[in-house]
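Table S7 (text form). Paired inputs.
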Amino acid sequence: MSFEHLPDGLGIGDAAPRITWKLPPGAGHQQAYELEVDRSGTVHRTGRVDTADQVLTPWPGEPLTSRERATVRVRVWTPDTDGPSAWSEPSAVEAGLLTPADWKAVPVGAGWEEDPEAQRRPARVRKDFRLDRLPVRARLYVTAHGLYEVELNGRRVGDEALAPGWTVYPHRLRYRTHDVTEHLAEGANTIGAWLGDGWYRGKYGFDGGTRNIYGTDQSLIAQLEVTYDDGTTLVIATDGTWSAAPGPLLAGGLYEGETFDARLHDPHWCTPTRAASAEWSPVRTGRRDPGTLVAPTGPPVRCTEEIEPVTVTRTVDDRYLLDFGQNLVGRLRVTVDGPAGTTITLRHAEVLQDGELATRPLREAYSVDTLVLSGRGPLTWEPRFTLHGFRYAEIAGWPGELTPDMVTARVHHTDMRRTGWFECSDPLVNRLHENVVWSMRGNFVDLPTDCPQRDERLGWTGDIQVFAPTASYLYDCVGMLDSWLTDVGLEQLPDGTIPWYVPVIPGEPMWTPIHPGAAWGDVATLTPRTLFQRFGDRELLRRHYPMAKAWVDLVERLAGPTRLWDTGFQLGDWLDPAAPPDDPAAGRTDRYLVATAYFAHSARQLGLTAAELGDDANAERYTALADEVVDAFRHRYVLPSGRMTSDSPTAYAVGIAFGLLGPRQRRAAGDRLAELVLADDARIATGFVGTPLICDALTDTGHLDVAYRLLLQTECPSWLYTVTMGATTVWERWDSLRPDGSLNPGGMTSFNHYALGAVADWLHRVVGGITATAPGYREIAFRPRPGGGITWARTRHETPYGTASLSWESTGTGLTARIVVPDGCRGIAELPGRSPVVLGPGEHVLDTAGLAGEAA
């Protein structure tokens, strides 16, 4: 069982959390369920509830109150049993602090004067307290202005990184709940925290960045609540009784890296046994509206993997160059010993140029970590409040010989549960898919960013709009994206404009002031709908519905009676490979064709959302609006010959994929699209808009063979060109690294951008063959469409109901498919050349000669 979209129920922010469970193996379908809720010994049962619903079912009984803990279990009735199943194992859910009145903590930080325009030395804060006896329960509710790591009695609390993450801080600041019962001792105790600037007051953004975007303080907000066996409680909250001192972190920033002087670090600083020191002084207290403190809806950023260097090369001037074999996001952990004052620098980059780190693509994100040794023996260290995007690292100043076991790259990203896998007979395609996975990992760092390495790392709306279908197959990212979409709604302008990136920070002159832009602003309508289709969360759709309506209403006003959005600033098919390096928006496709196409598509999808939510009047209104825009699109952008005014692959792809063409126009567009692709020898000719659509547009108009040729092309530009050039992530530009090995000269040259990896959704649905045909995969089409010489493929997805999988292989007489339909779901197998076959839950083996066998 699970609650909402969280990996566990501790500190949940919903008083009535919805409940999800998977059926017992082999159960088939659920006819009814019964929930049992134990609230401190008071047991409530729902009785038998006759429904097949098992995903995000309503909370039974009264809502939870702050701090209340309950255990829940379920039993189900299925068709082949006389009575209910056994009860599930009980699952615990515990509410966090649900009302502003629950908070006593105030922000506390350095009490000394600081220059707000300078890079400031981070502080540590702490508090000593006593416990008369051991508690039966202790909870720490914690967040910060900036970043924090908490210790209790010298022991780290939790394992999250860059907490509390990045939200629209004036409106929402996440806190997290920790069970710290085992951290406490009878008698003297000490709680303390490291602090960092992070997004709150660190330098962030373009052209040198902006400091103090949200405030000038760096403060901890923490509330430790201790409960004894007699029910009495003790609260230790951040207030004026806490102390602060400069820590051994001399400087730090998300872009810049971190400097740590081990000579200044007392390892006992957060224990009751530490020596007294005059450097500790009273904190300065601040203010925070507790009504803005919210519980998380998804998992935090964590270290999820450790990678050893593949090679370590010593240079003639005693630097070490390390290759980790994989472009990743994280930081280095080193173990080193040397004389006091020895200074070691760690530099990072994604690629090499002439055997040295290629740092130009980083722009002003210097990505340099510095460690000064104390001389007190071996030290294992890694930075706390920064992350870098890199495959290569250079280490200078290392005392003695550096061996591979002394350095580890620790991979960090939002710790989402992996849910999707794919592989096939073509090793280059497998590497492409793996590159997509790595780019998603590197850019899902609390919010969906564009890139993880340079002075940007922003939540670009257009990037995730095109990538959300791929993302939602690969990982359970719904809780994280739901939180980010909430911030999109908060940053939406009063007229309905959706920002280019969220949270919004200064971006003069191109991005500030904010202008409405097609494909980017359409995240408001399209991404909530994608998440609904993939995860079945109707309430998510409902929450973001006002944002979607405001966006489409804005575009309707901008287009006016003509229904053509043909004015204003647009990015068009961003990063079309034909665009010059210094003008990525100058592609082959009319920007206003793209804008009007997205207007029609968003209006259509909004009409479907309205119908799903029971808003019949708006369903009719937006559907009619979409029809009007489609008619205007055809008159303006489709010529009598069937050609489009922009005779480009992206123009035909959006026309086909968004349903903007009549039957004859659609056939002509598909033929012309295939002709254009083949005329360019199946090299890619699309950017951010066209790339996610082109393979589907070809497939759906009878040109599957051309789609495979496009996929399997290895010449530049193409998906597999990057693979042949050694890429281990998806690049921002098709030619970020040119065939001669030189870097693209453009100012935007990232080697880790997921947007162009949106083709993986086509791999999952068309090559692999799994498509959700009802929300949450309640109904699934198993429809592989082999081609391109690929002789086998397999894909697997963990749906909300359980595992769906399809493995097919070509045989001498046709194709054999092995299919798994999750319990509670219905499948339809549509194998090439065969009539559809309805499948129930379980394992099935079919081939194109007929039903070969079946196992329940």
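Next pair, protein 2 of 2.
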Amino acid sequence: MDLVPALEEPLKQPLKSVLGPATAKVMAEHLGLHTVGDLLHHYPRRYEERGQLTHLADLPMDEHVTVVAQVADARLHTFASSKAPRGKGQRLEVTITDGSGRLQLVFFGHGVHKPHKELLPGTRAMFAGKVSVFNRRLQLAHPAYELLTGDSEGSVETWAGALIPLYPATARLESWKIGKAVQTVLPHAQEALDPLPDSLREGRGLVSLPEALLKIHRPHTKADIADARARLKWDEAFVLQVALARRRYADAQLPAVARTPLPDGLLTAFDDRLPFTLTEGQQKVSRDIFADLATEHPMHRLLQGEVGSGKTLVALRAMLAVVDSGGQAAMLAPTEVLAQQHHRSVTEMMGELAEGGMLGGAEHATKVVLLTGSMGAAARRQALLDLATGEAGIVIGTHALIEDKVQFHDLGLVVVDEQHRFGVEQRDALRGKGKQPPHLLVMTATPIPRTVAMTVFGDLETSVLDQLPAGRSPIASHVVPAADKPHFLARAWERVREEVENGHQAYVVCPRIGDEEDDPKKAGKKRSPEDEAEKRPPLAVLDVAEQLTKGPLQGLRVEVLHGRMHPDDKDAVMRRFAAGDSDVLVATTVIEVGVNVPNATAMVIMDADRFGVSQLHQLRGRVGRGSAPGLCLLVTEMPEASAARQRLNAVAATLDGFELSRIDLEQRREGDVLGQAQSGARSSLRVLAVIDDEEIIAEARAEAAAVVAADPDLERLPALRTALDALLDEEREQYLEKG
């Protein structure tokens, strides 16, 4: 879709560049735009009408923005500083307004002269820069600007018609420069190949691709924008769904061994010893999984469930069913802490059923082995031997499981926990260890709205566990505004002490470890005014732990846990905490998934605004796992009106993970959700919004399934094939194959 053959001309060429070489270089390095086609698919984020004012009230923190506004006043201040000791330092403060709000611009030093002459009260201009906070007010430091008066008003008119397109930009390349570059390549849009089958396009009344590209970059009316977006959304949804439909089709052609549990085997023995009954949800999901396991092509199922909804138990029953049928099951966890935790909880749940081949082992018992990178040589050799001979029916491990040395006797099921942490190569390497492709069960505790499941995990069948097992306690969540109300933070530490005095334990979570080496290059550099205005670095585990032990939590047993500790030390800290030998665990997000300490009732998350909504929800799920109610305190220094505070208020207001994942999606760019953060690939979605466009995605999925069923190799649709090849170039492959 992005790399239509006629549009493959590079923007930067040795002899004749389409754009100036400097512009082409910035586009490649900072925006990932390499060809004419890439640039044509870099769509405006929104449009400004001259005379209509932007909403300064809604500016996002820490993002590069472009605003159209009017100068309200400008003041030049002089001040003394180390560089200008005699009061010769200069700072220009300009206030701009758009009717909805006001924003301060600030220029320093020699940078004040030009804006001082040009930015007079009443002047209208486009301003671009990074939004930061200084003295608790939003500001742009040293923004770039383009005046909208006189002759430049005319030049804006020429490249934008009546509507000014504002493009996703960077500090190195402002929106209006991108707009001018797009104008240069726009004539090439006529050569774009159309990936949509004619019947689909005509049946839905969509404009052609060349027309859509012209209308999105040079709209004359709002109707033009609507036509273009409607068409381009269909392109993105349809091509992606065709890719997923082809994967489902290919998977359905693979052979697999059907796995059914024995009537009175290991699974029955396990169910008989459970001290509680499964929830209705667990029973229903288990039935779906057992039906999949009994077929002769591989199961591909996504099991999503709220934190603590009992996913591990459902996965364990599936593994036992496979062991019953003579196969082996492997569970892949993203971290050693989590692999060890799973191994502990599985062997505890199974009791003597996990002692296969040992004295005291039950009749149907099997062996459950752990395999991680940091195991001693002897334990590792024994684990590898147990897997190769089939002595071990279940193995739980990290990516150590994927290494070449690991051989299975008969691998029948792969369970992947927290799937979004694994790349496709890792998952396929493990699947390749079966004599035939094993069944695959993917688990996630991050609730995924239906549309995202259809888009990201579209090659998997989806099951949802949304009931919490009996005995789980509610979690109360509160925002602690440390800057506005410092006494709230003092009270938070008192609450932690109270929980400990009542025999419970607490977590304190920080965004950073704190033993990072200071970068000498950075240290030597002069700090720009933007840097000065930036927020302080995130709070660190080692610093916070020291402050707490000397201050508000003095006398309590405080320990630290983070990712750079030796695995044995990490495990020892977790064991002591689980056994109640420490009171407070100050940790990074290594505790985010799977850590289960029912006696931990309180969690304080420092700099909570530095975490995503779903991540906060995951972390919060570590408390309230026993019979006592849980408490989660979200500490932040962000001002009340900021978007970050709104986000935290949303987390505090609901325990519904699906509701929060919708909020998360609406606030983050789509690309992050669809794996950009995980794979480094640019998201293929430009105009499709996975939350708002649920209907288009569902319809595109049905259309794609019909097209692939009729013509799996797309022989009759060469333009669609080309678009698919572009979507599935190497970096996109990783993104798509996360499922």
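The chain has a mean pLDDT of 80.
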